What does this fold into?
Amino acid sequence: MLEAWGKEEKVFRPQHGWYTSFVYVPMPCTKFSFMSEDAAPKFKVTGLQHRDIIDLVLGCLSDKTSRFVRNYHFVPNKTYWTLPHTQQQARSQSSDSSSSSNSSPPPLRVFTDCYNTDAMLADEETIRKMERIPGDDPDVEYVVLPLLFWSDETVLSSFGSAKLWPIYLYLGALSKYVRGRLTEFAAHHVAYIPDLPDSFADEYEAVYNVQPSAEVICFCRRELFCQIWLFLMNEKFMQAYVSGILAEGGDDVKRRHFIQVYTYSADYMEKVKIATLKPNSTYMVPLSLVHKDELCEAGTPVDALRRSVCREDDPATHARIAHARKLIFDKGYSLAGKRVKDLLSKYSLTPTQSAFSIRLSPHGVNSYQILAPDLMHEFELGVWRGIFDHLVRLIHAQPGDNAIKEFNRRMHLMPKWGRDRIRRFYEDASTRKHMAAHDYEAYLIVIIPVIEGLLPLEDNSIVANMLFELSNWHALAKLRMHHEVTLRNMELATSHMYEAIRKFASTTCARHETFELPSETEARARRARTRPTGARPGDSARRSVTFNVINTFKYYSLGDYTSYIRRSGTTDNFTTQVGKLEHRHVKRVYDRTNKVNFERQIALHQQKRGLVASWRASDDYIVPSLRKEQDKRASIAEAESLERLGMRPKQTPRARARASPSDHYFVSQSRRTPIHLRTWVSQHRNDLAVKGFIPQLYEHLAARMLGGDSLYAEGDEFTREQLNGIRILEDRIYQHKYVRINYTTYDMRREQDVIHPRRQADIMVPSPEWDKGSPYWYARVLGVFHARVSYQGPDSDQALHKWHDFDFLWVRWYTREAAKDEDSSLPPFGFEHRRQPRLQFIDANDQANAPFSFVDPDDVIRAAYILPCPAGDYPLTNELLGRSPLARQIPVEPGIEDDEFDYEFYTAAMFADRDIFMRYHGGGIGHRGLGVTVHESKAHGLRINHPASPPELDYLDEEDVDMYHAEPDPDQPDDQDDDPDTIQQDALGADEDEDGGFKGNEVDFEIRNPENEDDEDAYREDSDSDFGSDMDDNEVYYDLYAADGFAPL
It folds into this structure.
């Protein structure tokens, strides 16, 4: 019925469906020569399930019933952020004597999606200059349409060998927040790549009377992949690539879309197959010509010069490959022979020319540049996984087995965070198998306090510095919204990370002899038993292992991220994680097949799913769930617009039965759990936490009723008469289980934290101690309450006499770690010191510092992730507070109820998620200037422990340099600067040369696009401002204050 309906209504046309095709793969053989390659025997590979790319794209663009009609961005632009002028910004500018009191900082360019990147802007400029296609009307728009490809082979079942190798296509003109959402079904399945069948060996033997060698099978698999892509990029595709696709969109505007292959996302083994390079060979990097022995020098000055020489898809490379194929097919040379190897080994080429090179290089495209960095495989499952494994080996190398047991115990102590953001770690965290990327990401977030003290003292600082730099770089790389300051800091963070890893490799790793993990030894022995010769006596013994991460492609590739973000947008545009999520759809469909010829059945299911979607879109009927969602969004949008216009008075959340995301918080209206104040305090009189509970509550309510500052109010701010004028209805407060905090993230999305006193109880609020380097205060929520309050004291009026609903949180305050003695300063923290904030609870006996008090939920920024510090012989203490069931609702250890002890120290996790990281880093667009400002975030690329001269960066003022100037280490010899081995490879002590790079002994960074030295977005000296750029027709100003999202001025 579906097929008949689709054929009749033409909503899902047959040419948009799936086809079954085949390709031919040439079969070479040593000592067999032919007149030409075309005369060589070919093997027919059937079972290619595919769709026509142009028909697929045309159907998406011309579908007027699609829900994405109004979400396409066909015209690229430069997005700018006008910096907010807040109190913190004024504070930053007042400390800058060189800035004028009336001057405002220039806007910063923002990088978020494909349509505001350098690549799309360059292609748009090229299209503007080209001649019009004959026959096009004058009103036909010429636009760029980026195509984003993903491919990755996946296992379809937990048991069995069924696999699928899909190719996914996303339209870059669609917002990444839509195409990255799995439930939007924005991925288009282009093809399912078949594997080389087992019958290939039989046919090969029938032709040549010899079994195919491993080199032949490898060659034919590469050829199969290349032939499939040549088949997909057929003549119709290339015609559309050159002349564009003329289509009338859902907005009734006729456009000619010039398709461009922007990125291809895949793991390393598939990248080298796309680029037709030898994996893990002499020149294994697809983007540049770097020898494998030079990979460990990533981040050094000489490496900056090497990266500037890109691998080119030029005629010389094509000639080498063509010559090699002629030797193989025309003269019968061996694939593994010296003649062929000598011809191709110079750049680690293979005798297969990439399909993208064949199709796109005649049009000036460097096919190597479309291979996007892969953050998930290259860092989370690559560099960080390798470093973590070696850290576990180092812990195993310590005397006895207490160290690894202590590591597992500490990991199990780390609390959960968010909605499955960080789950409870298992008790055997060091031996877990089959961990996913998000598991390793969670390990990275919590490992700094966990590993403290498990290694010798001389290694602790080195490891802590490296872990901080890894966390910092990873947080910057995963940002969904970048601007000029964050990108510049990411360049510096890359240099710091490389230096920290090299120091770890040359010192800590060199001091310890490490061996395989028990699981690695067992796996190796298991593989040995499967060999034809069987296991050897030494296969079950643990072997020595050295740290080898710095010699891998994944380690070297981390230096390419900043430039690629400028080219193609933030990493969530091209990470393979998006393709991994799409695998869920095909795996669910596989369970519904009969497991025979399942590729065809999955393809038919995709066809019918599209048909049903089109059917539903063309029908006027709206399902109840969708209608409910639409009504909810409409009411929220209306409420937010009225509130921005000042047409709705400020109300408490209790005034509405349903919470709105535009409200900052929500507390239940229920009065089912009343608490009589006097009785409750009397019942808990032996608990030190309730000392001063009622007086503090009255002071808090007085501050809110009389217009004071409820967060920073002093105890003597109100007179006794004023406090006596506070009335609480029936002397009752009402307790609730949780409070929901809504907030705007750095990338202007609305998110929510649930604060629960027994689960996730820690919060962060603005700090008045900015001059002491503390951007936030931290507290643990002990209770969520509301009460009906009125004021009948001095200066009261009729409005104050009425009963008002007030919500408040009862909290226990953290403070920064105290100094060791009176002559010492507070322990430093921050990016400059490579340390996270270290906290402890305020002494409950010190009532002057208010260890317990109340907080208005409106003052809460969001939840904080506070980690215990379990290091030391006695990490627990009861000196700050005696036995208190009210203050210790969260146990110090999972499953153990203990109301007598706290940890002596805690760590505020700066890298818990991207939004929390940006609150410490500063410059979060959605934060609207609250917290660390852009001006202050410029210095977060500095590190104070290097002996170089004061930093001289074009975007740092003299005050910034003086504030973070490092004092020389008295323990180091005076001639340290003359020793190249002791010089920190850091870009901060470098001078900027006239070409826009850095020169000197530190790092030679290239901060301008080498292909466009006059790029208006490059950093450059400007006598009037930190950033200077001119505007062109594509640039659009956006005002942050217009809404939670961008709004054009």
